[in-house]
Amino acid sequence: MGSPTCPQVRESSLSAVVAELRELAGRIGDAQLRAEIIAGCDRLGGGPPELADAHPTPRELDVLALAAAGYRNADIAGLLGTSTNAVKSQLRRAMRRLGVRTRHAAVSAARARGLLR
User: Residue 9's pLDDT band (boundaries 50, 70, 90)?
Assistant: First the structure.
């Protein structure tokens, strides 16, 4: 049979696949296909249930936009007049809200949802 941890392994693997699909969706030029992939990811899950439909705050989107433009955390902090730790925190919250685990995936997911250009 299986070990007691098999469901956890499957859930972890599913989350990884959903995160990869979200990242891939951000690179797809066809808006309809991108929206269908993201909707499928939303149905499968991939983020904490309490944040499943959450959107990043305006400040988190500001930070994501600067990250998308290639700025480092220290540069973003200087431009926004805040601390590097605050930038890191805003990036982490945005990633949680978007159901992704990396900065790049957060930018891709925000673009795919039409939250960033």
Answer: very low
d(CA 51, CA 96): 7
Q: How far is CA 12 from the centre of its chain?
A: 16
pTM for the structure as a whole:
0.58
Q: Which residue has the tokens 């249930």?
A: 49
Per-residue pLDDT, 5: 45
